[in-house]
Specification:
CATH architecture of the largest domain: 3-Layer(aba) Sandwich
Order of helices and strands: HHHHHEHEEHEHEHEHEHEHEHHEHHEE
Mean pLDDT: 91
Strand order of the largest sheet: 1-2-6-5-4-3-7-8-9
Largest sheet: 9 strands, mixed
Oligomer: single chain
Low-confidence stretches: none
Radius of gyration: 24 Å
CATH class of the largest domain: Alpha Beta
Number of helices: 16
Number of domains: 3
Length: 364
């Protein structure tokens, strides 16, 4: 019965591995929860067993179930037929998956994890946004950890491109971490995917729970895309978990002078797939998904002069003076075109008078 899975998960001092061990031994979750003799379970320490029995006796099974349901939290237990197949097959799967949103509308057969640095560079965020935008309109679901930096960029890019997204958090639903992502939580929950956690609602976002959360991010997914990672980062932990789980590992290359890309190049040297566009992801995962590529001449209502400006920005951002040298346009005409192209949403102004492309371009 579901309430016994939830009762197990409400005991903060035990983890999913302990619950699974008892469940596998007794073959029934209610029997496992109410058992008084645990001495015959192979490899279970006497101290852990005694600790569980002491804490178990303080749990009101019906009360903890009501605590979850009264908060409007949905849940899937490990023995539920709708429990995600990919997650069920990892080492130490969560005993309970609590969620808000519409997990059933997420295509769990097209899941891509995205991880990276909390202190991500603008380049990494823009590269990731470009790649996710190329997946727009498909049934691919983006999975990430709802942290600042790359996680937030991945979720936002998914929402902007009509993709479902799953955010895996490292606490119970009584907490929103980071607080700055409160609105992002709500957008995901309101029909754009789901926010999920293995933690009972009252559990705090304690430091050790973040690396534990990472196994769920990669475990839900067929592959993991690393956008930026230092040698000692949570993203690298997730990358290693991805390999342990037998899933595909992919990396977006970055500047070699950036310490946050040291982990990326280590992974690439060890066999991770290099990704510069959405097609690289589809090829690595063996997915046949139709993507409508946008090229220069498919852009909205561009004049010949505007196309010339757009071409000038192909490699990197440029200032007004550089654009004038490239296009040979008068300053008045150039400024007029830049303004209209900004209004069309295909370029944007950055760092004063510098301009860069916004619209995605073809990978080939």
């Amino acid at each position: 019965m579901s309430k016994y899975w939830i009762a197990f998960s409400s005991i903060e001092e035990i983890d999913s591995a302990f619950t699974q061990r008892l469940y596998n031994y007794f073959g029934d979750i209610e029997t496992a929860f109410n058992a008084n003799d645990l001495s015959a379970i192979d490899g279970l320490s006497v101290k852990k067993a005694e600790n569980f029995l002491r804490l178990r006796d303080k749990v009101d099974v019906d009360k903890v179930l009501n605590e979850v349901e009264n908060r409007g939290i949905s849940y899937l237990t490990f023995d539920d037929e709708n429990y995600p197949y990919m997650l069920k097959n990892i080492d130490n799967p969560p005993s309970v998956l609590y969620y808000k949103g519409d997990l059933q509308k997420c295509n769990l057969e097209r899941t891509l994890a995205v991880v990276g640095s909390r202190r991500a560079t603008r380049y990494a965020k823009e590269a990731l946004t470009k790649i996710i935008s190329e997946l727009g309109g498909t049934d691919i679901c983006i999975v990430s950890g709802l942290a600042t930096g790359i996680d937030t960029t991945a979720h936002v890019a998914a929402l902007e491109n009509n993709l479902k997204t799953i955010g895996v958090i490292a606490s119970g639903f009584d907490y929103t971490y980071p607080a700055a992502n409160k609105e992002l939580y709500k957008k995901i929950e309101d029909g754009n995917g789901a926010v999920v956690t293995e933690y009972f609602p009252t559990f705090q976002p304690i430091k050790f729970r973040f690396p534990q959360r990472n196994r769920i991010v990669s475990g839900l997914s067929y592959g993991t895309l690393v956008a930026e990672a230092s040698l000692k980062s949570g993203a690298l932990i997730t990358a290693n978990l991805t390999l342990e789980q037998g899933r595909e590992l992919m990396c977006i290359p970055g500047l070699i002078t950036n310490p946050n890309t040291e982990g990326i190049y280590k992974l690439l040297k060890n066999g991770a797939s290099l990704v510069t566009c959405a097609d690289d992801i589809l090829e690595t995962l063996g997915w046949e998904v139709k993507i409508e590529q946008q090229n220069l001449f498919g852009l909205p209502d561009l004049s010949d002069d505007e196309k010339m400006i757009y071409e000038a920005l192909e490699i990197e951002e440029k200032c007004v003076d550089e654009l004038q040298v490239f296009t040979k346009l008068s300053i008045d005409n150039l400024l007029m075109y830049l303004t209209t192209m900004e209004l069309k949403g295909i370029i944007k102004q950055v760092d004063g008078d510098r301009y860069k492309r916004v619209a995605p371009v073809n990978c080939s």
